[in-house]
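Purpose: get a first structural picture of the assembly so the mutagenesis plan has something to point at.
Setup: two entries, given in the order below. No constraints added.
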Amino acid sequence: MQWFRQLFTRRNIYSDLSQEIQQHLAEKIEDLVADGMPREEAEHAARRAFGNATRVEESGREAWTSPRIESIFSDLKFAVRRLKKSPGFAVTAILTLALGIGANMVVFSVLNGLVLRPLNVPDPGNLFQVVHGRSDWPSQSYRDYLDYRDRDHSFSGLLAYCDLRAALTIRHVAMRSWGYAASGNYFDVLGVQPAIGRFFHSTDEHGPASAPYIVLSYDFWRRQFDSHPNVLGETIELNRHPFTVIGVARPDFRGTNALYWADYWIPLANAAEVTGFDDLPYRDHYPFDVMGRLKPGMTPQAATQNLNAVARQMAREDPKDEGLTALVRLAGPAGDDQDPARKALLGIMLLAFLVLLAACANLASIFAARTADRSRELAIRMAIGSSRWLVTRQLLTEAVVVSSAGGLVGSFFAWLLLAALSQWQPSVDFPTHLPIAPDARVYLAALAASIASGIFFGLLPARQVWGTDVVHVIKGGYIQTESFRRFAVRDLLLMVRIVVCTLLVTASLVAARGMLLSLHVPLAFEPKGLMLAQADLRMARRDRRGGFGWRAVPGRRRLVCVPLGNNGVSACPHGVGNHGVFSLAGVSSGCRDAVASRPRVHLARLWRVTAGGHRQSDFCP
Amino acid sequence: MPMIPAKKTEPRDLFRGALEMMILQSLRRQPMHGYALVQHIKLRSNDLLQVEEGSLYPALQRMLKDNLVKAVWEISASNRKVRTYRITPAGIKRLEREMSSFEQMLTGINLVLAPTES
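Result (structure tokens, whole complex):
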């Protein structure tokens, strides 16, 4: 790195050297004058003795320069100068590449954030998830988890957790919230540390409802408590059950799901009182994700075999576990090979790569044409001693400068787009976060793509120079390869462009048509001009199976209910501008079937049937 | 190295590293600036060796870059602003290594040049 520092201090070094030489000469002259020599003669004598001061200074400067780096810099300067001379070409080339590299960066950043990036826990490479062997289905039952944990010895720790949705009340203000109900060893197995307070542990659990503790996420703490440390010991209600805040997680720990950032964690032992349903006693109820740390020396394959041995044993003991198999894979999206999002993203990545390829093929042709225009200049440079390699390097540098500028512009726009996308909430029902903001890996990939593109489309003109007959060009010819070769390369490029562009246009049309079709898919009701509202009555500690009537406020009669939701949560679209206040519960399956059997039932009709309340039984017996 | 024995008309290189070695040895005795170095070498060699003044500064720059010497601007005894060079620990180490190999070379040359015993 010394040469890099010297780049910035070199001006001082040179100035010191110059001053020093002048001082030397002045001192010598003084000495000669003191010895009796006339000043003018002394000046000549001193300069004669010293030699060529300019040459000496240059020679001194050479000690600080690296010829190779200097020549690369001069190539860069020359390339920039040339591009300045043809701004139209430069802007077109840079924008073309910006499009290609920017598209690749966006898709790669999404791929990186959703698929490649490991979970944000210590040593993510040794955090594995236990999924079902045959289907790759991740969820497990609690009883199976206990058996895996207690009977198998491949893991140094095995944790279980499930998502939790509840009404959270802080100082009498209720809000919807999403968290995790986690086994007592959750934080210990992950090896994370709290920002303040403490986490809960296995030792805190002593049977059902024995650990009414809650750990808040850093973000939730910041939002709801203004990062106040007095939060420790405060009581928070989840579905009206009190929990004591014992700690706050660090800002970088947001749970064990890449897309879902928890607001809080409570012990599994206390989950039943919040949800009103005990998930723990069942062997055929699968709400839990199971993760663990493998013991040193244990491979995922060996752990899979061990767990399958346990699974067979479990199947013998309980028929509900018949056919149960286990697979140990890396936790998080990185380990999920069957993830449809991964396949879709890889497909889109391929398309983005094709866009870049088309851009490169296009620029290769333009650069080749420019090189032909510079035939005489390049030939003269070679004739007066410049090697073919130096000329080639100059052309490649020019291409890489264009591609780097394109990469920079593309990265900037990609960054803008990604920043907006990462704020996007795809679902209002679920606190999804898209961690797709570009990181160092994405920027490195963009840099690599920029340089590789430059080299790729700079190779064609470089190849032309390599095969140039200098004498022929100076006599008035052009740099060009033999006709059959030119035919091969240029035609190949043209073919590549046509094929790639056809493919891209077809893919775009198919995608656009798919999107249009999905916008007009029959929904059993007319969605135009409607808004959607939801209510979850479980949050008010109402039994989701009980069923509730709904009522329309007098004068706000255009209020209808359709069974859009799941898990007992129903949705109620109501007319825009009609200010419907609604009170709604789970719609019975009979009603759902009735509506589903009448495709594109107009909401007005539904309303006529249901809004009065008296005839509700016609549709929802 | 462009060290020339005095009173010779053709400059002759002594050997690689000779100037560097003499600069380092001079600076080891006491820090000094470029012009003083030239005078010092001339004086110590009884005018037998004369440093080509122009070659001194590129050599000093190389040694600065290799961290064998350090330079600071100071006011000399004659009230002149001069750039004084000091030898660094790395410079001392290099000097000792060079001197040891120089002595070995000199021994070898002496042995070769010694009159053959008859």
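The mean pLDDT of chain B is 83.
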